[in-house]
Amino acid sequence: MTRILLPTDFSDNSFEAIRYALLAYRDIQCTFYLLHTYTPPVYQTEYLMGSPGLIGLGDVMRETSMTQLEKLKSRMEDQYGNDQHTFVVHTVFNTLLGEISETVANESIDLIVMGTKGATGAKEILFGTHTVHVIKKAKCPVIAVPPKYEYEAPIEILFPTDFEIEYGKDTISQVLTMARQHKSRINVMHVHTGYDLNAAQERHKGQLAKLLGNTALFHEVPDNGIIEAVNAFQVKNKINLLVMVQNKHTFMERLFMEPVIKKIGFHLSLPFMVLPQL
């Protein structure tokens, strides 16, 4: 049983992310946790002090949230009815990041799937604030799905790496699950920096090759920067899913520090799976 957390703010992008999860895991027995968190817009001292005008506001917001979640659950069951999928709805007065952390721990969540932008996401922003924080803090893999993404099975997976970290089975288990499900090819891409791999990198490469087995194809590309390399590879090859490990050696910190796409020249138009370094 795979346990997948689906945070939603009821925006189109969050619906597209949920749809992606249902289709990508259509042949896998899953429990999907539909999560919505709410905080009153006037939540500050007045709310905490129990201002008479705010009494009951939390209950109203909870009822509204639960009603929307139940409608979303019914919509998913009607449109994507699947005997292997069950849904749990959960709404709570909490911050999104706080509740995601608690749910991941309490429910032994295997994967989070969410949109890259919320209802108010500006076009020039690559990842919304919530998505950035979730990716940075999550203790399990996260798939971020861009807006208006038309579902494609993840047949071709791009996995850029510099072989600087050790790869364990737990780290890449969700990649392997998806690859087995869709008979995917995992394109492991290393950007050549002009230097040969050192002993540690060679060992890590061997670990990864052993774990991925015959699903992997290794690529060595010229040194033109990781962002440029990913872009170029996507142009030449039909990639359906980008996978990276969250660690200090990746370019993700640059992505999050430079939110405007044109500043960094990175165009993400496909789902992005981020693996925590366990």
Protein model, in words:
The structure is a single chain. With 278 residues, this protein is of the alpha/beta class. It contains ten helices and ten strands. The chain has a ten-stranded mixed beta sheet with strand order 3-2-1-4-5-10-9-6-7-8, sandwiched between helices. β7, α7 and β8 form a beta-alpha-beta unit. It is elongated and about 60 Å long.
Give a quick set of tags describing it.
278 residues; 38% helix; 10 helices; Rossmann fold; UspA; Nucleotide-binding universal stress protein, UspA family; alpha/beta; 2 domains
* Tertiary shape: elongated
CATH class of the largest domain: Alpha Beta
Q: Let me know the average pLDDT.
A: 82
Low-confidence stretches: 119-125, 256-265
Kindly estimate the percentage of residues that lie in beta strands according to DSSP: 15-25%
Instruction: Count every helix, treating DSSP H or I runs of 4 or more residues as helices.
Output: 10
Helical residue percent band: 25-40%
CATH superfamily of the largest domain: HUPs
What CATH architecture label of the largest domain applies?
3-Layer(aba) Sandwich
Radius of gyration: 20 Å
Largest sheet: 10 strands, mixed
Helix/strand order: EHEHHEHEHEEHEHEHEHHE
DSSP, total strands: 10
Oligomeric assembly: single chain
* N-C termini distance: 21 Å
Give the neighbour order of strands across the main sheet: 3-2-1-4-5-10-9-6-7-8
CATH topology of the largest domain: Rossmann fold
Q: How many distinct domains?
A: 2
* Structure classification: alpha/beta
